[in-house]
Automatic annotation (TrEMBL), chain C:
Highest classification ranks of the organism: Bacteria, Bacillati, Actinomycetota, Actinomycetes, Propionibacteriales
Protein name (record): ABC transporter ATP-binding protein
Origin species: Nocardioides hankookensis
SUPFAM superfamilies: P-loop containing nucleoside triphosphate hydrolases
Family: Belongs to the ABC transporter superfamily.
One Pfam family named in its UniProt record: ABC_tran
Domain of life where this protein originates: Bacteria
Keywords linked to the UniProt accession: Amino-acid transport, ATP-binding, Nucleotide-binding, Transport
GO-annotated molecular function: ATP binding
Amino acid sequence: MPLLEVDDVVVQFGGVTAVDHASFVAEAGRVTGLIGPNGAGKTTCFNVITGLQKPNRGRVRFDRRDITRLSVPRRSRRGMARTFQRLEAFGSLSVRENVRVARDIHRGIAGLVRPASADVDGLLERVGIAAYAGERADSIPTGTARLLELARCLACDPQLLLLDEPSSGLDEQETDAFGLLLAELAAEGRAIVMVEHDMDLVMSVCDEIHVLDFGRVIASDAPGAIRANPDVQRAYLGYSDVDEELAEQTREILL
Amino acid sequence: MSTIISFTILGLFTGAAYAIAASGLVLTYTTTRVFNIAHGAFGMVMAFTFWDFSQRQGMPTWLALVLVLGVVAPGTGWLVQRFITRGLGEGPVSVSLVVTVGLFVGLIGLAQYIWPPEPRTVPPFLPDKGVQIGDTYVTAHQIITIALSAVVAGLLYLLLNRTRIGTAMRASVDNPVLLRLFGGNPDRVASLSWAIGISLAALAGILLTPVIGLSYFDLTLLVINAYAAAMLGRLSSLPLTFVGAMGLGILQSFAVAYLPTEGFLSGLRAVVPALFLFVVIILMPQAQLRIGQVKGIVSAPLPSMTRSAVCGAALLGVVAVLATAMSDANLLLVGTAATYAMVMLSLVLLTGYGGHVSLAQFTFAGVGALAYAKLDEPNLYGLVMSALIAAAVGALVALPVLRLTGLYLALSTLAFGVLMDKLVFQADFAFGFNGTLHAERLSLLGTSISSISGYVIVMATFFVLMALGLLVLRRGVLGRLLIAMRDSPAACGTLGLDLRWFRVGLFGVSAGMAGLAGALFAGLRGTIGAADFQLFNSLPLLLLAVVFGVTSVSGAALGGIGLMLLPVLQSSRPELAGLVFAVLGFGAVALGRDPNGLANLLFGLGRRLDRRFGDVVRRAVPLLPLPADRADTSTHGEVPLMEDLQQPLKEVGVHAAARG
Amino acid sequence: MSVPILEVVDLHAAYGRIEVLRGVDLRVPKGAVMALLGPNGAGKSTLVKVISGQKGATSGDIHLGGVHVQDTSPEELARLGLCTIPEGRSVFPNLSVEENLTLMSYAGVATEAVLDTAYSYFPRLHQRRHQLAGTMSGGEQQMLAMSRALASDPALLLLDELSMGLAPLIVDELYDTVAQIAESGVSILCIEQFARTALRVSDYAAVMTGGRIVATGEPAEVMDTMSDVILGGAA
């Protein structure tokens, strides 16, 4: 039984269908990639899963329960956390305080009585931003802020982690370290869903990939199979009469 | 039967005037996202201007009308948009609320200054004309008003749907940035809508004056009726706004006709618009958590705990010295200042830390005072109970609007204030109509504090304790949460924080603090009445809090003293009474964009001067650094002050831009 | 060589302390179509925002048709002949099609002319002229947006991610329109995630990454040498 099931979700903004009968799943202990061209509806899917966007139809099931009607914080307390493509760090708090807030929220009333900070630093260490602990969150580089959002999520110890373009802004070395961290987090039994544009990262860490194209899931498969899927290439290259030579060339680089 | 007809016509008449006012409010709000709380106040000032032109200067009515509606009002609207409210719509709601509350208070002050109180009348249009319908006589003025509302509706429809600039007005609601890329100018659109909006406020004011009289406050409160009507159209639909206005007018007229003139229900007649507003707000749909909201207010720096404790002790010392030296009358003022300062502390929590605006903070103090007097337990238990009752009432106010944020929450406090003012506080079970209640002074641990000097020291102690408590809270878990909520509600939500209940809690605690202040105030004065806690006093309170710095405890202390001095100043120079309010209002307009206020500016100035001249001064005058320092302040004060004022603004702008 | 229609010299821009444009140099010759390629986060959209006057630069110069245009407001630039079609649907969703078209006349063309041009190019818009723009399909909305480029006869057209969220077939149609506009002599700078689609209509291509232009040239050579940069992140 998968931890997260998105079932036949439709989201319309006026006449534009952002998500078009999309269905996919994510399982515990695995990294699931959600890829597709810009504007394919990936972030909208995240918003539907976390409750920030009401779907026009369809269901979201989490841990075998239908959560389609639950409020944002309730879903979160069932064990899901997300990062944002457009950063939502608490800008006027320090990096450490950002994670502390998440921890306090997670612990609820108990957090008021005995605030702890030791494992907060541990989390910063783990995602590799301990050096920034004292800085204001709105003054750190984008890549670091994305890792901060990840640390903030981890402070809530979620079963499901939704990461929206987590590696953009990271350099090559940082991206490699990030990949290792993802594998580790999945090995702890968490389900990770990641929207990502860095194909090297996606291909190396994901166990399964769903490809979204103008709101529809056009392929769901293991990385190898996705790599060979002509529909996927077409979606990415964006033209119907595939120029074979160019396609070959881009396939090598892209996938 | 004839009563129904005559009251319906009366209702249609007032409804028509509300509709004219409300459509102006909706127009300015939708095109610029600035909710103009001073809308009614503009109508009031314009009605006075019309009186001035037509009655005092003796112009023909038509000329005065053309001048006011065609020149003065649109010109004022244009100037206000150009120099005061421009760009506010993109900032936090709390800032635009404070700025327009500043206009509200400032305009009342201005009117009182220019047109000192004296009886004035404005005759209705065509006073001796009218039509007999059955048993009912309909005056020409009523017919003209109803017809004008239809004309306004028609013209607005044509403007918005049949002209390019009108289309651009609607476009700038959607996306002002895109309008600029099209080559349109959103500023011109905004100026036009403010010009029209203020003209409509003026027209409504002028039409209502013959009926409700030329009064500073009644016409200003017209804005509540306009809100109520506009809220039915969710502040965006003009047709629904007209429906709301007519419905409200008729409802109000029927309330006057059919509700009993005695007893509790009689009070209902005065609060129909407020009740209507409350009901509509409660029926509003849930506000969605949004990603990428405006954020990035720069907070005042937090003092260290030791420093705060030392400051608190010093303050207590000063009060203790004052208590032995001052006359009872002056001590009463010190106690009053302490009360105001405590109420301001509650605003520091709610507005400064939490980012929510309450327009009725004194009403909560009134609840505390009422509870204290009624409980008749002049001890710590009674005090705590009063605070708890006020807190419960505060939570109750926030509860129905649990699902709403910002503007609507603030407006519901306004409606609440009106309800309490006119319905509850004046009721027999409370203070009674124009009545007062007696309250005993507090006794602590069995010792009664009967002397006024002792009591003032107790009050100051409570202020210091409350302030220190607030600082501890700000440094702790809750303080961080509050900042986090202000910075990104969406992130808080997805991390599992239920913002709605948190907000209710915040309102409750803040109301409880105000209630405690009210209870102590009741003990200080001995007799208290509804007049001590009027809604109108809450607005200068908010403004002074913002002027002195609503993000800091020291701002609250200074603000408390300032608010206490206001009436003292006014009674010493009665002719300047209005001017004081005008200065305060427009001061808040100027400072409203920086919620850290004067307190922060003063501290910043001190630090800066110390850095720049401190060493030189200390070397030159080693024994007397203080007076020399002050001399510097007066000579070099202006330049850094300006810089300091603009710095936070820039940062706000940058963050807003970075977020998209 | 004649004066380029757009010349950007050592342009820097930042959000807060984070610098996004780090010395951009770019020339678009008069009458040419230039594709601007590069991975997400390279600063392409920021460049469009700075050129169109929506965002201030920290340093550097922009010349439009040989005229220095720093600190000129977007609406003035629009009236001077710069047509910017920003990312996402650049129409007013709550206005009807015809009202959207009416507003396009702010760029300095008579309303009648705008309506004529738009309806003759896209008859579908004529059928839907009383419909709210936001209720049309994504492709139709983008047609409406492109009508502005067609009708206002701009000196320079800035296109940002025209294809965002659209089916390939519709994207192809839209690029046919771009090609037609180019034929009429309009200079175009277009940002596109689908490199191939954009290059089909371009005379030149520039590659941007890390806030700088790292290569410019003929489409084929840029594609040959830079495809790893273009596709590495963009895909």
